[in-house]
Amino acid sequence: MLVLLLLCTSGLLLRGDAQDRAALWRGNDRSGRCQYTFSVPSPTEASCPQTGGPEVEGLKARLSLLEVLVSRLTGGDTGGPQGATARDQTELHQSLNRVTGERNLLQGEKERLEQELEGLQRRMEEMRRETERLRNKPCPLQTPAVPPSPPLQDSGLTKPAGGSRLSHLIARPNRQGDSSSLRDSAWQIEPQGFQELKAEVTEVPAPDGSEENTGCGDVVSVGEPVTHRKADTIAGKYGVWMQDPEAVSPYGPNMIWRIDTIGSDVRQLYGYENMEQLTKGFPSKVLLLPELVESTGSTLYRGSLYYQRRRSRSLIRFDLASESIAARRELPHAGFHGQFPYSWGGYTDIDLSVDEQGLWAVYSSSKAKGAIVISQLDPNSLEVKRSWETNIRKNSVANSFIICGKLYTVASYTSPDTIINYIYDTRTSQGKSVAIPFKNKYRYNSMIDYNLAQRKLFAWDNFHMVSYDLRLGRQE
Ligand code: CA
């Protein structure tokens, strides 16, 4: 049979017109025997193209498919589907980076809030002990000079922010441990202390019409907050914005600068040509600071940015024109990174500002036991020229600013209707309680400073950059 088949095949192959079109396949069948298959086109279909048998075509198709798959897996060239895959991967990486960055910011914020919670718990404990101490103290006989004080207690001014407004008046021993000479110890329930409480709710005197709103003077009233810009990202929940009162080339006097201060890598300083560009959100300059910034206490003066280096008591003067550090110095004994912040926390240990008399630092130290220390600094060398130790507990006030050598403290950072509750005059080394209304429109004010260039207050309230007009009266 096989011989006959071979003979037939030979005969067929010898036919001229079909010789080059006959095909032979061979392979094993299921039982393992060798199987031969002939394929010969009919004469009427000889013109049909035939480049290979159906099995070869199938193999070719499968091979092509495999090649495509291998090429995709190895990321061969960038065209076609491979290019789309590469783009997908890039977008995926970008999304991952963005999410990681936001996660880091939120972690930093969580740490800060935890620290703030600890601080509040500490303060609660201090208040509890203080209350205990007062309870155990024999009740002093009321002197005729001290009238009963229901109006004070019933007054809306004393609640609910009353605790924080009064807490700065808590008696604190001076360096020698003797608290008898302290002026603002309202909790001693003595006539002197009462006078201070009374002063706190005294009506603000009407402004003297003869005074101009230029030059030095005491703050008589603070205007409504005016919103200029809202930060776009979580990094701008807290921040600092400022203007140089004595700007230096190449930057003009209208230049506004801004730092968003949430995050562990705060070093970007944005510059805007003027207020309008800030409002539009178009910075004309972005400087990368060589050292990380701590919190919202930075300020600008004579062409330099002054700021506290992260996790240190080092002050840095960064020259804007040369974009380099011009001076660096430790602020002696200053607390940092949460030792003595303002009441809202945020590592606001060192608060720098500028007024008519130059550069100031507001901070505290272990030596001052948490009370606000004011130091005037040499703007070139950052050396302390002179210091004043006040009796105001730094963590009992929301923020502070200095105008004409006088420190003003703000009672609350969250209350929409709070007050400026204390003034300390460095000229006389005297302090007194006041009650000048102040609004926290967005209920989380993380920075308040005097802007000498515009004679306004600049503040950063819960993502919002706001300013306040000031009315200054006769200087006392
Ligand atoms: Ca401040």
How would you characterize this protein structure?
- The chain is an alpha+beta fold.
- Among the domains are: 92-128; 201-475, Lipocalin (Beta Barrel), CATH 2.40.128.
- 25% of the residues lie in helices and 30% in strands.
- It contains seven helices and 23 strands.
- It has helices spanning 2-13, 54-74, 80-136, 150-154, 162-167, 191-200, 275-280; strands at 23-28, 34-39, 218-222, 226-230, 239-243, 256-260, 268-272, 285-288, 299-301, 304-308, 314-319, 324-330, 351-355, 358-363, 371-377, 384-393, 399-403, 406-410, 417-425, 430-439, 445-451, 456-461, 464-473.
- The strands form six sheets. Strands 3, 4, 21, 22 and 23 form a five-stranded antiparallel beta sheet that branches. It has a four-stranded antiparallel beta sheet with strand order 5-6-7-8.
- The N and C termini lie far apart (131 Å).
- The protein binds calcium ion (CA).
- Calcium ion binds next to strand 13, strand 17 and strand 21.
Percent in helix: 10-25%
Regions with little confidence, pLDDT below 50 for 5+ residues: 1-19, 140-214
Radius of gyration: 39 Å
- What portion of the residues fall into strands of 2 or more residues? 25-35%
Secondary structure class reads alpha+beta
Strand tally is 23
Major sheet description: 5 strands, antiparallel
Mean pLDDT: 78
Overall 3D form: elongated
Q: Count up the helices.
A: 7
Secondary-structure element order, N to C: HEEHHHHHEEEEEHEEEEEEEEEEEEEEEE
Shape-level CATH architecture of the domain at 201-475 = Beta Barrel
Bound molecules: calcium ion
Text of the CATH class of the domain at 201-475: Mainly Beta
Under CATH, the topology of the domain at 201-475 can be stated as: Lipocalin
Q: What distance separates the N and C termini?
A: 131 Å
Quaternary arrangement of the chains shown? single chain
